[in-house]
Every structure is written in C-alpha cells, then in structure tokens.
Amino acid sequence: MKWVEPISCQVDLQQGLMHNASGHYQKRLSDLAGLYADDAAFKAELSHGGDRVVYEVTEWRPPARSGDMIFGLTRMSPGKIGEEFYLTRGHIHAVADRPEIYYGQRGEGLMLLESPDGETRIVEINAQTVCYVPPYWIHRSVNTGSDEFVMLFSYPADAGQDYDIIAHSGGMRRRIMADGTGGWKQVDNAAWQARSAQTVAKLLDQQSAGVTL
Amino acid sequence: MKWVEPISCQVDLQQGLMHNASGHYQKRLSDLAGLYADDAAFKAELSHGGDRVVYEVTEWRPPARSGDMIFGLTRMSPGKIGEEFYLTRGHIHAVADRPEIYYGQRGEGLMLLESPDGETRIVEINAQTVCYVPPYWIHRSVNTGSDEFVMLFSYPADAGQDYDIIAHSGGMRRRIMADGTGGWKQVDNAAWQARSAQTVAKLLDQQSAGVTL
Questions:
Q1: CA A134 from chain center: how many Å?
Q2: Do B154 and A154 touch (CB under 8 A)?
Q3: Which residues, at least 6 apart from A102, have a Cβ–Cβ distance to it below 8 Å?
Q4: pTM of the prediction?
Q5: CB-CB: which of B60, B124, B128 is closest to A132?
Q6: Domain spans of chain B?
Q7: Strands (E), A41-87
Q8: Shortest Cα distance from B40 to chain A (angstroms)?
Q9: What's phi and psi for A71, nearest 5 deg?
Q10: What InterPro entries does the record tag this protein with (chains A, B) (predicted)?
Q11: How confident is the model over A29-70, as pLDDT tens digits?
C-alpha cells in the first residue's frame, strides 16, 4: 500500500445496511441484559419473542488510525421492554475529547446524552437531522418510533468506546418511556448514582487544557 | 461554558442548506478564475451569465478544536464552462493525514482525487453514496448532472485546507468533461506538472510514521 485507496459505500435505506463495509455486528436482546428498568418484562420478552436482533451496525474502519475517521450505519429495530423504548448500550469515548456525528436517515428516535456531572440533553432525530455529540458526553440512541430507526455516523478513528462509565453509575440518569399517547417521556432512573467529583474534575481539567490523549 | 452543548441541524434537501449552521459561504464564478481549461468560455460565461453563485456551503464548527469535527452541507449548481463541468476549488488538508467523508444527498456528481505522486481516482456519488477521502489525497467535487448536487461532509476540525498544492502543479492532473452523450469523461490537463520527488517522499514518510502534526 502506497496510499490508502479511496472507497465508496452505498447506503441501502430500506435494508438499513451500508454496502462495501469492512465490519458488521449485531446486538441481540440478550446482549442488553441489565440495561432496562423492567427486568421481568425483559425476561418475558426474551422467552416469548426470542433472542432477536435489536440493532446492527455496518461500518468502515480505515487501515491506519492516526487522525483518521470511522463511519457507518446503525439500524435499530422498533420495540419496547415494558414501557421503555429499545436503546443502544451507550458509551463515552475512551479518548473522551472525541465527538461523534449522527445523521438521521429513516424512522424517528433520539440521542440521549449525559454529561460527566449528570446533566441530561435529548436531541430528537428524524430523516435529515444531523446530531452533533460533543466531546465528553455519554450518549445512547433510542428508537421512539414504530418503524426501524436508521442513522449514519462518523467519528475519529482513535476515539474508542468506554461502556463502563454507564455501568458504574447504575445506568444513564434518565430513561425514555412511552408516554401513553404515542409519544415518549423521560423519567428518572432510580438506580443512577452520580460520578465522583474527582472523575468529573479530571474530565473538566482535560477539556479546559484541550488535551488530546 | 462547562461542556460544549449538543446541537442538531436539519438538512433541507430541496434548498441544499443546513439549518442552525454556524457558518455559510458562497463561491461565485469569478472566485474560480483560472481553474477551467477554456478561459474564453469562462470569460463569456461570466459576461453573459453574470457572476453567479456556483457552490455554497453551510457548516458547523465546534468552539474547541482538539480532536473535534466539522460538518456541513455543500450545494453545487449544475453547469459547464465550455465542455468542463462545474467544480469546487479542491484541496489537500493542511494537516495532510486528515481524511474527509462525503455523503451524497441529491443529484449526481463525483469526487476527483489525486495522490501526491499524481495517481487519479474517481468516485461517483449519487444519493446515499458515502465517499471516503483518505488522508493525503487532493480532492475536488464535480457536478456531472443537470440538477443541483448536494453532499453532507465531515472532517477533523484541525485538518485545515491547502489550496496551493493544486495551484502549484498547474491544476489537477485530470479534467472532467462532457462526453457528448450526456455522460462525463476524464481528459489530461496539459498544464499539469508533477510534484517534486522531495514533496512526495516527505508525505510518504509522514504516512508510514503515522505522524499526527
């Protein structure tokens, strides 16, 4: 390889897949054990509905990482566990000052964001909505619609994903539930625990210093 | 500012604009003087058709740059100067190891790519085509259709643009012309001059070292 070759990938909106991808993974319901409020409903769904694919990602990763970018497509099935909408596992970037850009393609959903010190933001996403997830924000996608929810994404190739930050605080602070009239509402997650002042201060310091790890 | 706030920007496919952008610029025909093969046709177009807007960009740039990303929308008008299709100025990233991702939204066009040592690649782009421009490639967009050509783009916020690399070599090596049957063809640019072996070697060394400036 002299130079990395340009490539093109065609997005199939109907299938919710990107052709010519270098990677493809699926998450099944069982992969999301422990993330939902209603554990009984989760077990019932798993036993009656089977261990279905709840979201999948087709992505392209560059062969070299320095300064480079990853992009791909996320397809989320519609559904609820009890009254809670299907969600992705969620993460903060392992290199926390890295952002992510999502672009809604089909269906309706939202990005649930949480700052290290527990502020919540919600960005609703429909077709042609760009959602910018700034550095340092924990983020999770939620399908609030009755159809599949499909988004394109891109982020720096050296960002990585840290899933533990959510697990360690008992989940994200808010949950996205059906509001009983066809829409969604946010409710507190009773199990949520604030991150330590030390953890927050470290990330704030990093941000103010403009540190790139 | 404690943390940078998440934002959403709605893409208007029909207008070819992104709402809630932080920046907006337009390029007029006169801004592209000297880029086309047929200078007489360029002058005639300018004098008869007026100094029209040939492409415009609505974009969002983050307040901090470290590790961050810029995104936006490019709308290119359809047209030709003589037999040469409307194009953008084209650039390599000032930090040359930075990539760029384009996503076709409307119309038809292509990305004309040139490696530092003069290899040409062409990626055709239609709606839902993702085009990955790897680090180190000079790139220019060309509208080969009869309608507007609209693409979303994203790239690292510290990438910058170097336009001189094209000017110094007498333009890009190939030109994209009408083929007389409604399609396009590539032809040599007689004015093109190869970059020095030193320039190419420096960029190759940088790539193999994985240098992030």
A1: 13
A2: yes
A3: A111, A125, A130, A131, A133, A141, A151, A152, A153
A4: 0.95
A5: B60
A6: 11-209
A7: 53-60, 69-76, 80-81, 84-85
A8: 34
A9: -145, 160
A10: G6P_isomerase_archaea/bacteria, G6P_isomerase_prok, GPI/OXD, RmlC-like_jellyroll, RmlC_Cupin_sf
A11: 999 999 999 999 999 999 998 999 999 999 999 987 668 999
Q: Which of A125, A159, A178 shows the shortest CA–CA distance to B6?
A: A125
Q: Give chain B positions within 8 Å (CB) of A129.
A: 8-11
Q: Which residue matches tokens 């207008």?
A: B15
Structure tokens at B104: 């076709």
Question: The tokens of A162 are what?
Answer: 């840290």
Buried b (16+ CB within 10 A) or exposed e, B41-51: ebeebbeeeee
What confidence tens digit (pLDDT) does each residue in B136-150 have? 999 999 999 999 999
Report the candidate in A44, A40, A41, A70 with the shortest Cα–Cα distance to residue A57. Answer: A70
Render the burial of A138-171: b for 16+ CB within 10 Å, e for the rest: bbbbbbbbeebbbbbbbbbbbbeebeebbeebeb
How many CB atoms neighbour CB A192 within 10 A? Answer: 16
Give the Cα separation of A125 and B9 in Å (integer).
Answer: 10
- Separation between Cα atoms, residue A104 and residue A152, nearest integer Å: 7
- Chain B contacts of A204, Cβ < 8 Å? 2
B8–A124 C-beta distance less than 8 A: yes
Please tell me the distance from the alpha carbon of residue B120 to that of residue B173, in angstroms, as a whole number.
Answer: 8
Fold of B11-209: Jelly Rolls (2.60.120)
| Amino acid (one-letter) located at A174 | R
Instruction: Report in angstroms the alpha-carbon separations of A213 from A82, A158, B66, B158.
Output: 41, 10, 10, 15
Q: Tell me: pLDDT of A213 over 60.
A: no
Q: Within 10 Å of residue B123's Cβ, how many Cβ atoms? A: 20
CB under 8 Å, gap of 24 or more: what pairs does B30-38 form?
Answer: B31/B89, B32/B87, B32/B89, B35/B87, B35/B89, B35/B171, B36/B81, B36/B82, B36/B84, B37/B81, B37/B82, B37/B84, B37/B175, B37/B189, B38/B81, B38/B82, B38/B83, B38/B84
Structure tokens that stand for B16 in this block: 């070819």
